[in-house]
Design brief:
The chain has helices at about 20-35, 55-65, 85-95, 115-120, 130-140, 170-180, 195-205, 225-235, 235-245, 265-275, 285-295, 310-325; strands at about 5-10, 40, 70-80, 100-105, 160-165, 180-185, 215-225, 280, 300-305. By secondary structure, it is of the alpha/beta class. The protein has a domain at about 1-160: Luciferase-like domain (TIM Barrel, Alpha-Beta Barrel), CATH 3.20.20.30.
Length: about 325
């Protein structure tokens, strides 16, 4: 049995506004809980009309309030955008509201462009403090000392589990040094997956949170009744990646019959390079893909992105994935 979780992009589509996207994310979580998924995460993205999870901690509260047992968290909070103290307050509050169910994944990318970064009142150099900022968040979430003058209220003592997110070797080295679980973003940066996992496992130092390496692998999986249907559904994500290269980040678009008519050969090469580890197809195809990925990576958990335009079709994709991986009840 494979441990599966979900990264929900909280997509705003041409047919669904931001409120609809937020409610759809909550609905995915309700179903995922019943199907046996371990956790659902949302990510911090700014100034992207097609993604409604910029206020990440608020979105987590919305999803957690509609569920009972599934873990809900950030995949992730882009820590250079924030004061560590504020993040500790936010996630400590979530932990008080939903005990034992909150995860805090931390990344050092801005999650936006440089112009928006200035609107956030942060500088690109803030990323250089990421390792120290992680330790600061961790300290504020730990039990407060008797003479501690600055406490994160009501976060102190909640000990929300931290994760390090990464798409390069830097995150792998930091997660290993701090003894934290590591999530690699191979759903958009597949090239360094294997080297990063090797670095993480070989350099891992046990900590109070974790006594052995724990690696999560992000992967795009789209499942449907047939390979052809799944490939058609996958054109939504392929168009989204193409639009990123064009500098035209808009709303999620419905699938099309002929993706070759949408992108140029150069755009196709770029997009397919980033989507190289995607698993797209029928339940049998998905099962084989998952088995191969687990065999290659020895991943402890898969974090699945199923970027399907239609909400019902996306739910069906997650249901089929659960069945293929033998996690659903």
């Amino acid at each position: 049995m494979t441990t599966l979780s979900i990264l929900d992009l909280v997509r705003v589509t041409e047919a669904t506004d931001a409120r609809g996207a937020l409610d759809n994310a909550r609905d995915v979580a309700v179903h995922a809980e019943a199907w046996g998924y371990r956790r659902i995460w949302v990510a911090e993205h700014h100034n992207m009309p097609g993604i409604a999870s910029a206020a990440t901690s608020v979105v987590i509260g919305h999803i957690a309030a509609g569920t009972k047992t599934i873990r809900v968290g950030a995949g992730g909070i882009m820590l250079p955008n924030h004061a560590p103290y504020v993040i500790a307050e936010q996630f400590g509050t979530l932990a008080q509201l939903f005990p034992g169910r909150i995860d805090l994944g931390l990344g050092r990318a801005p999650g936006t462009d440089q112009l928006t970064l200035r609107a956030l009142r942060r500088t690109p150099e803030a990323a250089e403090n990421f390792p120290q900022d992680v330790l600061e968040v961790q300290a504020f979430l730990a039990p407060a000392g008797p003479n501690q003058r600055i406490r994160a209220v009501p976060a102190a003592g909640t000990e929300v589990p931290l994760w390090i997110l990464g798409s390069s070797n830097f995150g792998a080295m930091l997660a290993a040094e701090l003894g934290l679980p590591y999530a690699f973003a191979s759903h958009f940066a597949p090239e360094l997956l294997i080297p990063a996992l090797q670095i993480y496992r070989s350099r891992f130092k046990p900590s109070e949170q974790l006594d052995r390496p724990y690696a999560m692998v992000g992967v795009n999986i789209i499942a449907a009744a047939s390979d052809d249907e799944a490939r058609r559904l996958a054109t939504t994500q392929q168009m989204s990646f193409t639009n990123i290269f064009r500098g035209a980040r808009g709303l999620s678009q419905p699938p099309i019959d002929d993706i070759e008519s949408y992108w140029s050969p150069a755009e196709k090469a770029q997009a397919m390079s980033m989507l190289a580890r995607s698993i797209v197809g029928s339940p049998d195809t998905v099962r084989s893909g998952i088995e191969a990925l687990i065999k290659e990576t020895a991943a402890d958990e898969l974090m699945i992105v199923s970027d399907v335009y239609d909400h019902a079709a996306r739910l069906r994709s997650f249901e089929l994935i659960a069945g293929a991986a033998n996690i659903s009840g």
